[in-house]
Give the backbone structure.
Amino acid sequence: MHAHAPDSQAGGPQAIDPQAAGSRAPDPKAIDRYAVVGHPIAHSRSPQIHAAFAAQTGQRLAYDRLLAPLDGFAATVADFRAQGGRGLNVTVPFKLEAAALADTLTPRAAAAGAVNTLVFSDEGVLGDNTDGVGLVRDLEGRLACPLAGRRVLLLGAGGAARGVVLPLLEAGVASIGVFNRTRDRARELVAAFGQAPRTSALAALDDCPSSGIDLIINATSAGLHDSAPAVPHACLAGAQLAYDMVYGARPTAFLREAGEAGCARVSDGLGMLVEQAAESFRLWRGVLPDTAPVYARLRAEIDGTPATTPAR
């Protein structure tokens, strides 16, 4: 998943504040339609998550899965909107196309170069990226891991990594070292954030450090193939938390290696999945649901499921 910065000049999507746009007051008598669009899409847990959010907050809505042809994303979105759809979650492989399709982008979506949430209104199509805020809330909330002053090692330089850089910087981390198997990709990611606040805290690493790291975040897809990025055991042992964006019924290879090396705590990305969904729900409905019971229910279900799934 390689992302590039969208054009934020005239003629392209304009960056706006997510707090100042997105949700209008929902009609309590209406049943608004939402969906998650991707290819494939049958595995998505988003309908279950949003149904739980709707029940908890008393919102009347329908949320479905929407399979888009690989060459038909824009047409699928246009058709859904024409039928009265109010918003979409976007998953692989369409996040870059969603950024290009949006009329306006939030700063975090513009920084990520990718969109996972579309909001439809009379003003047009708003694109946002809630992955990073989902990660930050999972770390600081459920995992009680304050980010201020933390030294972060970010593994990977694709779309998943890019989507979390700005929220991590805004959360006050002391530094983010980006390490990627292809060094040039890491340098490109860092260069893309040249105008971001506190960009001096962001650096591309030629070698994976063996010490001096508090939090390691695996934003690669290695866990889907039961493999792990090469990280020195000393680095894993010295970290306070190792976090993998992939989740499943058993720990990923990265989390197993971290635990065996002596890392104090490990966590998969299920909490990030639930938190990013909650932020999408807030954008659409104007209310932020309680994620704890939804996470607990999903955790119990997934622990009995052998499949490993990306945090989307």
Notes: The chain has two domains: 26-129, 133-268. Residues 79 and 283 are 21 Å apart (CA to CA). The longest strand covers residues 32-38.
